[in-house]
Predict the structure of tRNA-2-methylthio-N(6)-dimethylallyladenosine synthase.
Amino acid sequence: MNEEQRLASQQIKQPKEEKDYSKYFEKVFTAPSLKDAKKRGKEEVKYHKDFDIEEKYLGMGQDRKFYIRTYGCQMNEHDTEVMAGIFMQLGYTPTEMIEEADVVLLNTCAIRENAENKVFGELGFLLKYKRKNPEMLIGVCGCMSQEESVVNKILKQYQHVDMVFGTHNIHRLPNILHDAYMSKEMVVEVWSKEGDVIENLPKKRIGSIKAWVNIMYGCDKFCTYCIVPYTRGKERSRRPEEIIQEVRELAAQGYKEIMLLGQNVNAYGKDFDDIEYRLGDLMDELRKIDIPRIRFTTSHPRDFDDHLIKVLAKGGNLVDHIHLPVQSGSNEILKIMARKYTREHFLQLVDKIKAAIPGVTLTTDIIVGYPNETEEQFQETLDLYRQVGFDMAFTYIYSPREGTPAAKMVDNVTEEEKKDRLHRLNAVVSEYSAKALKGLEGQTVEVLVEGSSKRRDDVLAGYTRKNRLVNFKADPKFIGKLVNVKILEAKSYSLMGEFVEEVTKEGEFVK
Ligand code: 5AD
Ligand code: SF4
């Protein structure tokens, strides 16, 4: 090659060979970033119809056992069902005893500090098992893994952890396990960009009576106190036909109750750009499926549209119980929480729901002790609670979450004051709950029997359509069935009743 030819050849771009260097790396390391997680990318979410485990991983779990401990919400419980399904496809068997597990996973929750502290405590405790059995793999997944500070803390202080992965890549469990077996270092694989929607993931459901069905992932609301939009990514809805198919299959398998899940379920469908289809449309379809009860959780007052209310008012298998988190009764606090509604809007919405669905039961979530919440603002929350007459509430003391706007707010409310407010709120919650239960004495209610009560085998336990716990004596053959129960006595948080008859579809009753 002469000089001229050499220069010419340098100008011609050689196609670059795409080389995969990953096999040369000993560890997989993708760390989370809260800043990146906050970005709402314009990229389209991709839908994958099928999940497949690479053949080389099948049999990985032969003679091995797994144990998963779940913290937090129902979404996490359901993610655990998916991971258990993947483990079982890989050939692992489940165990209830940590000491005999070959893989231990902690599926974590980041919503409040005490949830995180529990996980760190458990991680410390697991060191004992790891010392006894150095082959044991310990993994941390779920919402805490999506937080930078948590991953850094694990890297520094919990080096007996073998793998950390997040909420967007649980379908990568086979690869992550494989890497953890091969690597001497901690495998960290956390995606800050939300994942795609993957259908047909295997599931090992924990019950055979009630089932969870995801309808959407993520949250775009960014309430100022909440870590969820960072840990679960942007809103992505599953396609309606996939959800309808899953519910149909569950009905055919004999499930009696479906809980539709999403961090903000009534934003369902907002992200579709090819169809106009929202939660009301989905509920209207699901109503036609032959399954006794369908619920959803959790909803945001701002997205609770009139069409949804109209559809819910049709009743049938759509239960007359709505969980509607209000968080606070003060307009100033709602504003700094960035809830994007006022007390007046919320009360109007409640009136609309009550008018459309007579006798509807409403439950809620409330946070007390928000930064600088005054006594008057707290009183407004108590007042709103009474005005709505909620049946029950989950109540929390505000917990600062690193990376959220509220965590930067200066706070002048003492810990003592926050605890006192929680105490006073809980007294009101108990009063209203007791009143609602008392009102049921003498009435006959439909109960879905879930099993025997924790304390006595001959006492069965189940929930009404409005999610009230009922205990009554009856033959265990009614477990998994719908029965009518006459309420004899209201306790503080449950009801005692007397079995009347089985509710049959044909309208004949079995005593
Ligand atoms: N502190 C206290 N409670 C919180 N929640 C969410 N984030 C926080 C926080 N930082 C509560 C809200 C929400 C429920 C699931 O948890 O009430 O509705
Ligand atoms: Fe968190 Fe719910 Fe607000 Fe979303 S709507 S940011 S999940 S409290």
About this structure: The first helix runs from residue 3 to 11. The chain has a mean pLDDT of 91. Residues 31 and 190 are 6 Å apart (CA to CA).
